[in-house]
Amino acid sequence: MEQKSKRLAQEEKQESKRRKELERELDWVRQSPKGRRAKNKARVNNYEQMMAEGTNEKVARLTIPIPNGPRLGNSVIEASKLQKAFGDRLLIENLSFDLPPAGIVGVIGPNGAGKTTLFRMIMGEERADAGSFKVGETVEIGYVDQRHADIDAQKSVWEVVSGGNEQLEIGGKLFNSRAYVSRFNFNGADQQKKCGVLSGGERNRLHLAMTLKTEANVLLLDEPTNDIDVDTLRALEEGIQSFAGCAVVISHDRYFLDRICTHILAFEGDSQVYWFEGTYSEYEENRKKRLGNLGPQRVKYRKLVRD
Q1: 40 and 161 within one domain
Q2: Helix, strand, or coil here: 307?
Q3: What residue ranges in the chain does DSSP mark as E strands?
Q4: Which of helix, strand or coil describes residue 65?
Q5: pTM, full prediction
Q6: Is residue 21 domain-resident?
Q7: 41-53 helix and 230-242 helix, angle to the nearest 10 degrees
Q8: Handedness of CA 241, 215, 116, 207 (dihedral sign)
Q9: Could you tell me if residue 282 is left (phi over 0), alpha (psi between -120 and 50 degrees) or otherwise beta?
């Protein structure tokens, strides 16, 4: 009886914590600029439904399997004195970092600061003007970008993920392909939807499903939380936290980042990017001490000085 009481007390404590997190997120979305409020209307509705029904049962229903790829060595991706400009605008100046093998790195900053450009440089889609990347020998990268260019608009959701196969081998295990697709909140008739008619949030979920089955050991996730429902958001959060490799996540959802991140890479303006070891909240405290209590700022760039 005593053990049961302790377990119930722990569950109630977890439920209370989850409810407070939902309340904070709901307030954040409601107070966001008008465009973001409209964009996240579905998320607000989901938050309100979860607040009304309770959270544990709903969250537990959806899980996202993120298989572990080859074991990472000590070297993941190391950047040294990177510089990148567009025209006379200097996006990134003298950036150095070393991704930790089991780290979850949150990449933050205003739109247009250079976050996606950094990912494209890592993938070799853009070239740095100066500096270099060193990629570990065992690194296998999985990249979820915002363009979703490799999604065939004429195929169904299930066909794109499964390749028409009833079973998928992921992490050395066989999965029923339809069951796997349902883990990303595509159920029943939704699996037969043509990809060309999917909403932005559905395309995000689809691209996650496609990328996570590749068994990468380094994940680059560019705005994976955009427009996704709360069930998928929670499942993604838990999947990333249990992932044995390294994940680098661009997101504007500060509460999501605060729950998952071990490090922060912050585009702070004036072409400067700050590397911080710690959670998002700890980074915020550090930033206030260094820069003062600044509100939202329009992104500024240094002028490129040519020799």
Answers
A1: no
A2: coil
A3: 77-86, 89-98, 104-108, 130-135, 141-144, 167-170, 173-176, 218-222, 246-250, 263-269, 272-277, 302-303
A4: coil
A5: 0.74
A6: yes
A7: 80
A8: negative
A9: alpha
Straight-line distance from the first to the last Cα atom of the chain, in angstroms, rounded to the nearest whole number: 77
Where helices occur in 167-268 by DSSP H, the ranges are: 177-182, 200-212, 230-242, 254-260
Question: How many beta carbons lie within 10 A of that of residue 299, not counting itself?
Answer: 17
Q: How far is Cα of residue 65 from the mean position of the Cα atoms in its chain?
A: 15
Q: Are residues 28 and 112 in the same domain?
A: no
103-117 burial code (b ≥16 CB/10 A, e <16):
bbbbbbbbeebbbbb
Structure tokens at 56: 């544990």
State both tokens at 59: 């969250």
Q: Which tokens go with 154?
A: 């004429």
| Distance set, CA 109 to CA 136, 209, 251, 259, 302 (Å) | 27, 26, 9, 18, 16
Distance between CA atoms of residues 267 and 275, nearest Å: 9
Whether 113 and 256 map to the same domain: the answer is: yes
For residue 191, what is the domain's CATH number?
Answer: 3.40.50.300
Structure-block tokens of residue 190: 């939704």
pLDDT tens track for 50-98: 555 554 444 334 677 676 777 787 889 999 999 998 877 888 889 999 9
Of all residues in the chain, what percent carry a pLDDT higher than 90? 26
Q: Which two tokens stand for residue 233?
A: 């958001």
